[in-house]
Amino acid sequence: MKRPSADHRSVGSRQRGGFVLILVLVLISAMALAVHTFSSLALGDLVAGTNGLQQVRRRHLAESAIEFAAVSIVNNQPAALAQPQQLQFADGSVGRFLLLQGLSAGGDKPAYGLQNECSKLNLHTLSFRLSRKKQSRDRLLALPGMTPVIADSIIDWIDEDHDESEFGAEASWYLTRSPPVYPANRPLRTLSELLQVRGMTPELLWGEDANGNGILDPEEDDGDATAPADNADGILDAGLSQWLTLQSAESGLGPDGAAGIWLNGDDPFVLFDEVQREFGTETARFVVAARLNGIQWQDEVNGGQSTDPEIRRLERLEEVRERIRAQLGMSGQNVERFPRGERGGIVIASPGLFRFRSLLDLFGGTVRAMVEGKDRVLKSPWPADAATIERMLPRLQQVFRLHREISNPGRVNINTAAVPVLMTIPGITRAMAEAIHRGQPDQQGKVAADQQVVGWLLRRGIVTPAELRQMAPFITTGGDVYSGIAVGLIKGEPSAALIHFVVDVSRQTERIASFQDLPVASAERLRLSWKKD
Prior knowledge:
The protein has 533 residues and is an alpha+beta fold. It is 34% helix and 16% strand. Strand 17 and strand 18 form a beta hairpin.
């Protein structure tokens, strides 16, 4: 057998060596790719973990802003709400939390602080008595875009009866819809519930804010390019939702945390004794006689009652019904069983049917009463002039309360409400609303001392004493429920955590009434920076 030559063996060896080299190179490349992939995944996990940690931190900062807001309100430190708060984490990163009134101002600078919910019309303050339903409809009609059909249908949806208002709807209409629904006949739980009301549309309720997040999203600022339709002006139009609320309230407690003298209570004997201790016998006589017999004002000959014949007829029917209910013991005021007695020379034989509508009723009125067997005209100890009202109203607000409850649905705050909401106040005119709006104090920080009571409308000559008395049951300069956007930021990070919340301090302990996470937003887009604006 012929043996292979040395040259042939050398060629074979070189071929095998080349194959091994290629195999080694392939293995090295695969290992390098695996290492690169592993490194990329590890780096991605690290970045994701870091981003997740930062987002958790941002949200915790926003939650801290809510707690800070509640404490600042309780301690009566509104100026603190307008100041961003800064802190440093253990790893050296710097965080900041702040509070914004809202996010609907487009390209404008953010408005720091919180919004008083009494700046809006509280739907739960509308009266559904027959004699007041027209007034409630007119209040709703003052809002932009509202129609008689929608206004009456809102009233019918909330009121307890099943009688259709003039333009409204009850079960007979809703049960023919697809799908059929039944009117709630109770207070609303959310504003979204209004979408079930006859005539209401998402466009009317939410405006351009189709997703209800309070932020001007790109699709809400591009005209007709994408839904919803908008005017592309860089400003978020939030529809009716920006003027309406369900959560405004005012505390019935005094500065010391105690409930004041209940003017409309069921026991006039207790009322007399409490007022006498605070203001003396003559004032106690006037207040109790007013509860028993009603008040007359020289500048208001009809005693504040409507001049509309139909409304006046309904008012008389309601007064008669209340008397009958009292006599039958159905109202908690059984006149026949009421213990007769005397205080300050006035014979008290019933709890009285006149109810103070506001503390302004105490100013400038007269009452006819039998005192120690003589027919007398009792005059209010407080004249209805601007100086007396501004001087005495703060004191009376500390001493008296009108309602049994600790927390009462909020009236419209004349210091903070916009013109559309001011127009919902019964008795107001466009000229009055615009004059009030021009005279409102700076919303940053504490309200000036001369505008802490509604009497400033008299001093400025915006209303007369009679007009103020008519408006007084519907207006305030206070309010104890606030809403806002809590924001959490980390220095060097582009994103911001946002939480919309409502805090209620109208009760003995504060509570967070609502809490909603909003989509993460760009701090640059919100015009938030680390420099002081």
